Amino acid sequence: MVGTAWPRDRGDMKTLTIGGPLCLLAYGLLRLVDGLDGSHGSGWAWNVGHTFFLAAFLMFGVLVWMLRDVSAVAATAALAGSAAFVWVILGDLFSGLPGLPDPLMIAGPLLFQLGVLALLAVLAVRHDVTVWSPVLVLAGFVVLMVNLDLIPLGALLLLGGLAPLAAHPTEAAERVFG
User: Fold this and answer.
1) Which of 7, 68, 136, 158 is most buried, by the most CB atoms less than 10 A from its CB?
2) Which residues touch 129 (CB under 8 Å, ≥6 apart)?
3) Is-contact 100 62, C-beta < 8 A?
4) Is 171 exposed, middle or buried (0-12, 13-18, 19+ CB in 10 A)?
5) Cα 155 to Cα 5: distance, rounded to the nearest angstrom
6) pTM above 0.85, yes or no
7) What dihedral do alpha carbons 37, 43, 47, 53 form, nearest 10°?
8) Is residue 86 assigned to a domain?
9) How far apart, in whole angstroms, are the C-alpha atoms of residue 131 and residue 64?
10) 8 A C-beta contact, residue 65 and residue 79
């Protein structure tokens, strides 16, 4: 049993499952604006965009923490990956911070993606979300890996896959999570 890991207030879950992807969408759109001059780098769109990027991964981290009792291993992987993203984003915003070591640059995103997918797969097997949730999230991750200019599309796919967590029925939450 999960006990108290599932929030009793659907507002908390809604904020995270909707807010995280929307912040990622804002980052993706601002990244496109930043690249209109042919390069990406310091400037208002870069800084504001990266602030949204940071907010997205902080929200994803809290969401994963709330779901940690669904699968501790999956949540640990996703949290480690989320922390790697936060480290890289902070390094982009503040040039004095040390960069993430190369092996973690590769492992971090994979850990995040596999962890989130595993959490959603467990919830789908338990019929607490439909099979479309992990499928849409996987599609979003694939789109993000194909081309960073597709971040807005990937964010919308993540929104579609995570949104059912915001509407999780109270009865199912009680049955599965305590």
Assistant:
1) 158
2) 120, 123, 164, 165, 168
3) no
4) exposed
5) 25
6) yes
7) 10
8) yes
9) 19
10) yes
Count of domains observed in the chain:
1
Structure tokens at 65: 């923490």
Task: Give me the domain span that covers residue 74.
Answer: 10-177
What tokens does 22 get?
């929307």
> Hey, what are 124's tokens?
């789908």
Cβ proximity of 143 and 154 under 8 Å: yes
| Residue 7 CA neighbour count, 13 Å, CB half | 18
**Alpha helix ranges (H) inside the chain:** 10-34, 44-66, 72-93, 102-125, 132-146, 151-166, 170-177
Both structure tokens of 54: 């940071």
Give a yes or no: residue 69 inside a domain. Answer: yes
Which residues have C-beta within 8 Å of that of residue 69, sequence separation ≥ 6?
Answer: 1, 2, 3, 5, 6, 75, 177
The verdict on residue 128 lying in a domain is yes
Residue 24 domain flag: yes
